[in-house]
Amino acid sequence: MKFGIVVFPGSNCDADCFHVIQQVMGHEARYIWHKEARLSDCDALILPGGFSYGDYLRTGAIARFSPVMPQVVEFAAQGGLVLGICNGFQILLEAGLLPGAMLRNRSLQFICKPVHLKVKNSVTPFTRKLWDGQVLQVPIAHGEGNYYCDENTLQELKQNQQIVFTYCSPEGEESDAANPNGALANIAGITNQAGNVLGMMPHPERCSESIVGGIDGYLIFASMISWLEEAGR
Amino acid sequence: MKELSYREMGLTDEEYQKASELLGRTPNYLELGMFAVMWSEHCGYKNSRPLLKQFPSQGPQVIQGPGENAGVVDIGDNQALVFKIESHNHPSAIEPYQGAATGVGGIVRDIFTMGARPIAMLNSLRFGPLEESRVKSLFSGVVKGIGDYGNCLGIPTVGGEVYFNAAYRGNPLVNAMCVGLVQKDEIALAVANEAGSPIMLVGARTGRDGIHGATFASEELSESSAEKRPSVQVGDPFMEKLLIEACLELIKEDLAAGMQDLGAAGLTSSIAETAAKKGLGVAVDVLKVPRREQGMTPYEVMLSESQERMLIVPREGKQDRITEIFEKWGLDAAIIGKVTADGLFKVYEGEELQGSVPVAALTESCPVYVREGREPSYYKARQAFCWKALPDECSSETILKLLASPSIASKKWVYSQYDHQVMLNTVVLPGQGDAAVLRIKGYEKGVALVTDCNGRMVYLDPFKGGVMAVCEAARNLACVGARPLALTNCLNFGSPENPHIYWQMQEAIRGMSLAASTLSVPVVSGNVSLYNETETGAIFPTPVVGMAGLIDKLENRMDMAFKNSNEAIVLLGDMRTELGGSEYLALIHGQESGAVPTPDVKQEKALLDLLLDLSSRQLLSSCHDIADGGLAVTLAEMAITAGMGFEVNLPLTGQRRDEVMFSEAPGRVVASLTEANLSHVQELAAVYGIPVHLLGRSGGTRLLFSFGDKELSVDLAQAARSWGESIACHMS
To answer: What are the pLDDT digits (tens) for B684-711?
Structure first.
């Protein structure tokens, strides 16, 4: 089983994802430079966090034009697992693989802190080791994580169970006080309709080892691995 | 651009005379500019060099002491830490966002220039009173500047300190420290090896920004400083990120003979420094320098401080491979000249020679001033101040006020704007312990990092304050279980031309040197920032200490939060009562005065050794040093971070309550431990000659102080709010 970690100029969580897949999860990982055209050796893709191209324009807005992106779109269309974390989520939105857009955090500040997430859909390939209603603690680190979409899209997301994680209190209450960035409906992570592409603002790779802050993120990677194993990868 | 006179460039009449003598003729405008920036305090250390010699810089752990881009210390397993702290005070005073951002950029370049992967940053910041709107805007601009730059680079900002005091009104201090990790056999030095080698310039294009930044950094701030905003550079963290990755690839493949970042004084300084080490010369053509503005003169090109640029001297035959790597990262690499054997720094514009100066004239011949220091009158007056005449204001209200004092309060508002977790190494996060702790992947060991300086103590007594800054940094490292390895410092002072300020420098450096030698923590790098003055006077002398330590086994690390209720709380060290220089006197009584508590460095050393012994035996549950705000604040912070109260008993034997509660005397820590470990800890402490005072127990939802006849109680939740929300409240 091999994970491809897509590296754009300015990505900065690529090495962290690589470390978790290889050293913590014990699976093969390789970096995919954004100019590469072949991803066929990979069983799953991770678009890591960072500031692709400096994100001076709008987060992810330039990265979506990278040479690798048509391959990522094709990979997703074939049903491959694609996980976009933080800047990776923003790029997936810009590329149209996921619906909606990101606004600046309502505090207008970058926020780095642990938040609580409620699992809203535990039957995706990314959450099958979790249960509905489970509360995870996962760190965020972003300036633009204020998810937004129009009302119709929100209804679709809800109907199709595409909302996977929401911000909540430690007790699991999806309150405004527990919403760190102003995201619509406390949305922290969504999938595409098919369920094989997940974008999430919090960083699961930052909580996959107890020494650096918990293991709740480990369960997300473990879910992906178990799904891939069942798929015969 | 209007032509400046040599005086406007910052040269004195004597210096102008000396430059002319060295050249054997009158320097032209370009040459004059080169002398001015190279002989500025910022580049030439002309006022501080004789004083800096006092610092101990040797030790078995030292791989590279002062003189390179950064210091290097051995951490075993063929690995080394590379670190340095640097100021960006003046730029931040007039353009806080860019000033702070480019300060981060500059120090990061110093680290990867040495071949090290930057793994952590810290910031030591000083501002005026947070109640003032100008201060709020400076503070938020600086924090945002640091955050935006560091976050984009993907280097965690793991620690630092922030103080607020009227002494820094108008002249904030922004000191940035960067720490890198390198394989010992991959350490790169900034040396041009042999004549004939090409010189490459890589990274951002050169513009008119930052011309004479080094000169500007070496004079007092005034009403007209805002006009010098063009002297502030503009940062591009994305470009820097690309440079880091490309340069580290270069070093992995051993393609560069020399590498030097462009910082203060731009091309002039980086070229001169690269050539000077081997007595070589250089010939550069300014037309070959990629520019982002048209019509730049040779003077402007040579003095520009445009950010995110690196100078590379390739190994023979490796130039094409270097170009290939830079192309991969989308960076331009231009050959702008070559190394020569004649020892001259020649600047051409095409075929035409525009200036020629001996490299040594710019570097080695930089004037050195040994000045006379004179004890200022305030010194004895403030020492003599007797606080015993003031009423004892020890009350729960005072405790809450101290906790809410922005210098003491939680810095969460600051560090939550910094990515402190990227790279997956941060084991003790900001706010959790006395120092940041990072793991080294693949090993049991970790490193601990801290910055410290109490400017008020240094002001009241520069010698003792200098000792205390070094001791506090070392103590903070020991409180997380780390053995101090080495330190870097950023010496922020007023104008050295004022004998009173020069005296502060002399005394502080004497104190720091004494403490560093006694604790065996050599000084491996540093930076000097002088002329931190406005019309209303100089800042508090603030020699910030950045220190790195090693934890052999990360499982032995400690933090400051109580762990379980009903554990014993002890004070390790003396029950001291000096209140001089304390935040309590300043905040509650409005007195920044009094005799500074006398540090005992030998006793401090014994305390450090004891703490390391205790942590290696895992006998303590938590540990926190006594510093700003005294014992009361230390206990409160341990409780607040744990969400668990305490009861302590402080029997008075003639002392006042406020002395016991709020004294900031050094050499002391508070720890919590299980009942079962108590006798063992007492035995070990006796071996090291450190007294143990059993204060009380953890648990409950109150901070309860009992003084025999009187009790003082503070609600934990209320304390947590005062301490936790104070800065956010000021800023909202």
So the answer is: 999 999 999 999 999 999 999 999 889 9
Catalytic residues of B: 42, 88
Closest CA in chain B for residue A205: B424
Name the packing angle between helices B716-731 and B396-404 (round to 10°).
40
pTM as predicted: 0.95
Q: Closest partner residue to A212 among B147, B329, B424, by Cβ?
A: B424
Cβ-contact B636, B602 below 8 angstroms: no
Query: In this structure, which CATH number among 3.40.50.880, 3.40.50.300, 3.30.1360.60, 3.90.25.10 belongs to the domain A2-230?
Result: 3.40.50.880
DSSP 8-state symbol, B392:
-
The verdict on a CB contact (< 8 Å) between A12 and B241 is: yes
* Residue ranges in B590-665 assigned as alpha helix (H): 601-616, 630-642, 657-662
Question: What residues of chain A lie within 8 A of the CB of B422, using their CB?
Answer: 12-13, 16, 49, 141, 206
Kindly calculate the radius of gyration of chain B based on its CA atoms and give it in whole angstroms.
26
- Given a cut of 50, the residues of chain B with pLDDT beneath it are none
Contact A111 B416 (CB under 8 A): yes
Nearest to B709 by CA among B389, B394, B388, B391: B394
Q: Is B421 on the interface with A (CB under 8 A)?
A: yes
- Whether A203 has its CB under 8 Å from any CB of chain B: the answer is yes
Report chain A's terminal Cα–Cα distance, integer Å: 6
Residue-wise pLDDT tens digits, B125-169: 999 999 999 999 999 999 999 999 999 999 999 999 999 999 999
Domain segments of chain A: what residues?
A: 2-230
Question: Nearest CA of chain A to the CA of B151: how many Å?
Answer: 8
pLDDT, tens digit (0-9, with 9 covering 90-100), for B457-510: 999 999 999 999 999 999 999 999 999 999 999 999 999 999 999 999 999 999
